[in-house]
């Protein structure tokens, strides 16, 4: 977009990063004449300036400076005002306006309004922070706590700020005794949104100064237009559900100005680069965040059993997923380790690719896992377990204890049946999917990490290579006739034997193995 007549915007200027640089308004429109923006090399906003031009020498400016941490999070916002810019002896002031409060994500802001500098027409500067500090120390031996300056966000699962409350509680004297019987939070603001983020007219409450963050937790920019928000990768008009700039990750057949894939109820877009699923399945979520240098989407994971897990905002505790498979000796020696990619299937995105970037490893230990590098195994794997289901049913039927006439025969059948099943699915057996040395690899392909990669997709879930063996074990075990309890006990006993022999570390099956086995059992039971 380069202009917007409906908002009296005469010209919109973009920089080489695709970021909004200037907005020029038509003469006569109330408010600033020009908006100017400055950014750091990563595209984070550093400054916003509003120019008011009332004559050749009657020019004044006001705006904000943003101080950020190395990750781009805003730590503080400074407000400045400057008058008579065209004159040598201009007036200006600078004060600390906001400090941002964080836990694992932004919690709210602390309004400071602390004057740092003031200069009048004579050029005399006053109110330096050093002078203020000395004065405060000389005059006081205590600190004053001002309530009501902190504003905490109350957000929904999409990150939309629905309300803010202050740190000031309001006493309620219901018994008319002159003392507070209980306290209520002081609500500073509240907003209701249409699905794509436009605040409903007449459904907004503000006590004092408006809160700067709203839909998707993004900063609002009402100086441009009502309903306008900004983020790292977009300028967004919530009234028409369209972005001003094109999507940096365009999707074939979808307009580059489209947002939320048309579904803002379950999708959010905190950075303005692509959509994030707010609903999760199991313990994994996928957060598709643009890496501008290689145009790929890092995968994030979250543990929904953790005490710190927040179901309303699962992204708070999400962490980037890293590769971990590599030569043990290399890792112990501190050398670069990983999978070269030469052993991957021919259709694997990482087969002999990007090694010029990652050294000799396509999937280096400690390297980020990207969505575009994952094989989707859904069709192949679902067909595989289904194709051999009848074989396991037939094998299980041979050792069905219902064929026996007495307790001794039942015990013999049970032992033989267990032995037979183990010889089908355990280490290097015909249906051991992680094996690379089976004699039947031409019929039943290997699902080892060096073949399909450490991570892949199965039925819309992020799946580790060894999960396939556990899922198939649960599926075929049910077809064989085993109960869930028997299958879990058998797998755990086998793992304990490996632990005792020093092949693995730990005490039986991990929770991830148990979950994968149950997934296979559920897949079989649902089909039946």
Automatic annotation (TrEMBL):
Domain Bacterial toxin: 420-526
Record region (Disordered): 493-515
A Pfam match: Ntox44
Protein name as catalogued: Rhs family-like protein
Lineage: Bacteria, Pseudomonadati, Bacteroidota, Saprospiria, Saprospirales
């Amino acid at each position: 977009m380069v202009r917007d007549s409906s908002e009296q915007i005469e010209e919109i200027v973009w920089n080489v990063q695709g970021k909004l640089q200037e907005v020029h308004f038509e003469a006569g429109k109330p408010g600033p004449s020009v908006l100017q923006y400055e950014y750091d090399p990563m595209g984070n906003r550093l400054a916003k300036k509003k120019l008011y031009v009332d004559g050749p020498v009657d020019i004044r400016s006001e705006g904000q400076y943003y101080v950020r941490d190395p990750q781009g999070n805003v730590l503080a916002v400074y407000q400045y005002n400057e008058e008579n810019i065209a004159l040598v002896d201009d007036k200006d002031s600078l004060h600390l306006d906001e400090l941002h409060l964080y836990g694992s994500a932004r919690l709210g802001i602390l309004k400071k309004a602390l004057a740092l500098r003031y200069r009048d027409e004579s050029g005399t500067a006053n109110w330096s922070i050093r002078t203020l500090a000395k004065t405060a120390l000389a005059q006081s031996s205590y600190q004053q706590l001002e309530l009501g300056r902190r504003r905490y966000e109350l957000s929904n699962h999409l990150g939309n700020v629905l309300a803010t409350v202050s740190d000031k509680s309001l006493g309620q004297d219901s018994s008319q005794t002159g003392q507070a019987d209980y306290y209520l939070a002081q609500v500073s603001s509240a907003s209701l949104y249409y699905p794509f983020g436009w605040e409903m007219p007449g459904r907004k409450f503000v006590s004092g100064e408006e809160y700067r963050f709203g839909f998707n937790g993004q900063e609002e920019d009402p100086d441009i237009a009502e309903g306008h928000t900004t983020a790292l990768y977009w300028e967004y008009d919530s009234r028409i559900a369209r972005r001003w700039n094109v999507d940096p990750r365009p999707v074939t057949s979808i307009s580059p100005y489209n947002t939320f894939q048309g579904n803002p109820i379950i999708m959010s877009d905190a950075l303005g680069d692509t959509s994030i699923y707010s609903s999760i399945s199991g313990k994994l979520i996928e957060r598709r965040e643009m890496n501008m240098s290689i145009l790929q989407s890092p995968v994030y994971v979250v543990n929904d059993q953790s005490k710190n897990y927040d179901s309303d905002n699962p992204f708070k505790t999400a962490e980037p997923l890293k590769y971990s498979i590599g030569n043990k000796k290399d890792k112990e020696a501190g050398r670069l380790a990983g999978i070269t990619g030469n052993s991957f299937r021919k259709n694997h995105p990482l087969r002999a690719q990007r090694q010029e970037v990652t050294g000799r490893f396509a999937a280096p230990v400690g390297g980020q896992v990207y969505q575009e590098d994952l094989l989707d195994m859904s069709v192949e794997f679902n067909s595989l377990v289904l194709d051999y289901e009848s074989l396991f049913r037939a094998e299980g039927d041979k050792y069905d204890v219902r064929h026996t006439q007495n307790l001794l025969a039942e015990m013999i059948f049970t032992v033989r049946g267990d032995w037979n099943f183990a010889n089908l699915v355990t280490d290097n057996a015909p249906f051991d999917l992680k094996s690379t040395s089976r004699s039947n690899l031409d019929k039943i392909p290997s699902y080892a990490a060096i073949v399909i990669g450490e991570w892949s997709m199965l039925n819309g879930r992020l799946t580790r290579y060894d999960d396939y063996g556990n899922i198939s074990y649960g599926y075929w075990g049910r077809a064989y006739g085993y109960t869930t309890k028997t299958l879990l006990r058998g797998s755990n006993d086998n793992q304990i034997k490996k632990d005792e022999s020093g092949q693995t570390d730990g005490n039986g099956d991990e929770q991830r193995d148990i979950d994968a086995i149950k997934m296979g059992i559920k897949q079989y039971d649902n089909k039946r």
